[in-house]
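Hello Y.,

Per our agreement to keep a running log of every chain we model this quarter, I'm adding this entry. I've kept the format consistent with earlier entries: sequence first, then predicted structure.
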Amino acid sequence: MNNVVKLILGILLLSAVAAAGYRLGIHEASSAKPATGTVKAERKVLYYRNPMGLPDTSPTPKKDAMGMDYVPVYEGDAATGGNHVIYITPDKVQKLGVKSEAAALRELNKALRVTGRIEIDERHTYTIAPKFEGWVERLYVNTTGQAVTKGQPLFDVYSPELVSAQREHSLAIQGLASLKDADADAKQSMQQLATASAARLKNWDIAGAQSDAAASGEARPRVTFYAPVSGIVLEKKAVQGMRFMPGEMLYQIADLSSVWVIAEVPEQDIGQVRLGDHVQVAVGSYPDRAFDGKVDFIYPTLDSATRTVQVRMEIANPKGMLKPAMFANAQISVGKANKVLTLPSSAVIDSGTRQVVLVRLAEGRFEPREVTLGGRSDNYAEVLTGVTEGEQVVTSANFLIDAESNLKASLGGLGGHAHGGAKPVAEQKAAENHSAHAVAAEPDNKTATVSHQAQGTLNSINTDGTVSITHEPIPSLKWPGMTMDFTLANSSLAAGIKPGSAISFELVERAPGEFVITKLQAQHGEH
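Predicted structure for the entry above:
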């Protein structure tokens, strides 16, 4: 009996050990499964997107109308905006010549190119006009355009009024000398007379030496006028022997050591110009020379006819190479002196309503990103929002730019169907592939009944009733040859035609951007 009990106890103990081992194995297996599931969840495929960047997704793997595989989008990618990421294989990136450059802090130095004319600096123009009546007795400078130096004699004049004033001043000086022993009142009266006569000569711009000669009793009947500045004679009205009246202009002299350039700046650019901006001026007479200057004045009015604002620039002209009325080309250095975040202008894709750049996230991964731009230079643009310093932006990528244009074309094609009701998926893909050239190819007088003849190869008859056709170029629509899906006006049109057959077919545009096959037949009697 004891042996039977021991046997039973042994069997129960073995069973308990086996059960414990089984439970432990189950527990380890169950704890390992969640870890494996976690790894798989990190790479879970959310959906598949169009390989050309079109706004078309699929929950299952598929191909587009061109036969390209849809690209999987994983859960990790979606967290970083993966639904907008463009994927390209590294070897294709290299073949396409994709180049990128980092957004960086730079000074935006831009040269604003304008045209203008050289004019005389009005501040350095002088007029010789005697303040008394007289006659021109002798001319020392007798031609217009003649160069003169400061202090050079110009002409002699005779004036009875001037001679009288000189004599009066001479007598006052002599009388003051003779009254040196007289009382104070007599001396004061004579001094006042001498001072008044001297002031009269001074107001007439008579040179001090000539006034001293009059004071010494050597009154001269003739007075010589001298050039007040070095320059050229712009205008000469003095003629030897002529009579002139007070204030009449006889000579006009201009100092051309500095000149003005009056430029016409377009209305949209005037906000960039600041006083003191550096300027370089070139003229056709000296193509190998550049003349430096600065912006001196911005005129306060706008020319309503040309929509330009005049800007005055001061240019040094020590050798007189720049002549008034010359035509000039000016470059005004405009821009911000401080550093701002910039990116290359070639990286910006401008649609007219928004600006987009392609940010290089990693090898073969690019993200379209809308940016806000500020000022521009010749090669760079200031970026206000959308890109941070150090991010790589694509500067040369024809494929990516073409993908952007395809995206806009597809959106435009979808917009054209907004009032046409729902259409099959294959038909929408056909509209996406041809929306850009279908609209451009529409004749001005085309109606809904105009048909277009085409030839190609029937690839397959789809389950939704459409057909996949690789067609040759269609001249009447200006379509290039490509593969796409078409809707049949009647499903019986494809009856008896085998995939791979050469076919001829007839297209009719039932609605804007919606083409339907109305006639389909196999060539060489295959129908």
